[in-house]
Design a protein that fits this description.
- The chain has nine helices and ten strands.
- The chain is an alpha/beta fold and 261 residues long.
- The chain has a single domain, classed as Rossmann fold.
- The strands form two sheets. It has a six-stranded mixed β-sheet with strand order 6-7-8-3-9-10, with helices on both faces.
């Protein structure tokens, strides 16, 4: 049984008519998408802007309404669970988004940022247990102890991504969703973060959903790939198949426009 299974997921967005004469047909953000993520697998989801990537990512976290379909995590349809039952599983599904100052609370220190998820998911930990988890998560993310009391504005982009990673890891997830995580980073820092994610995947037995617009990065990261175009999966396969033998015209366009492979 896969860790996560998405079945015939559709997401629509209402399009209000500016003159209020009639209800316009809803816009399809995601149309009958299905895929699965196995244990300790990195699944690459590749799509350009407006392909539906963000809507899909948020739907997996139950932060965006869906029109139809189901999302099974460890055999349970999380879309059908009540809030309390889903909260128990939510700890196991964490996400990291692009480096923006809104991703980390600018008014909180690194220590407070990392302690927040512990307060939600492990409210009965003692202060010493919290400190142990905090130190371990920072170590996993490659962060120095000297940064404990720093503020997000005092960190460079790579450090901010590592703090976001530590915040996700501190609650011991099984599935980590990386949504355009390294898109705003310089190439050397990108490489450091990507290789760190691959090491953590094996060390912690994590499963990764790596969402990106960059086919070259997906090729480096993924065990299997999905190509998302205008809300639909147009091609699937392993990196060798996708990169060297693309079948769909959109995939061929992506490959031909990627010069860094």
């Amino acid at each position: 049984m896969p860790l996560l299974s998405v079945q015939n997921l559709s997401i629509t967005k209402a399009k209000p008519d500016r003159w209020l004469r009639y209800q316009a047909a809803p816009e399809k953000l995601i149309d009958q998408v299905s895929f699965a993520i196995e244990e300790n697998q990195c699944l690459g989801l590749i799509g350009e802007q407006h392909s539906g990537k963000m809507a899909l990512t948020l739907a997996l976290l139950r932060l965006h309404p869906v029109s139809s379909g189901r999302v099974d995590y460890r055999g349970q349809d999380i879309l059908a669970l009540g809030k309390r039952r889903f909260q128990k599983l939510r700890r196991e599904i964490q996400a990291i988004f692009p480096d923006k100052f809104t991703a980390l609370n600018p008014l909180h220190s690194v220590t407070k940022i990392l302690n927040e998820p512990l307060s939600v998911h492990f409210p009965h930990l003692t202060p010493s247990e919290k400190n142990h988890r905090l130190d371990y998560a920072m170590q996993l993310a490659g962060l120095s102890r000297e940064l404990h009391e720093c503020w997000p504005g005092e960190l460079n982009p790579g450090q901010r991504i590592r703090v976001a990673l530590a915040r996700a890891l501190i609650v011991e997830p099984r599935l980590l969703i990386c949504h355009d995580t390294v898109s705003a980073l310089d190439t050397p820092v990108q490489a450091e973060i990507l290789n760190l994610l691959l090491d953590l995947k094996d060390t912690l037995n994590l499963s990764l959903l790596f969402v990106t617009h960059d086919l070259a990065i997906a090729d480096h990261m993924s065990d299997h790939m999905l190509i998302l175009h205008r809300g639909s999966i147009v091609e699937t396969g392993n990196p060798e198949e996708i990169v060297h033998h693309p079948k769909h015209s959109y995939t061929q366009k992506l490959v031909s426009s990627t010069t860094t492979m």
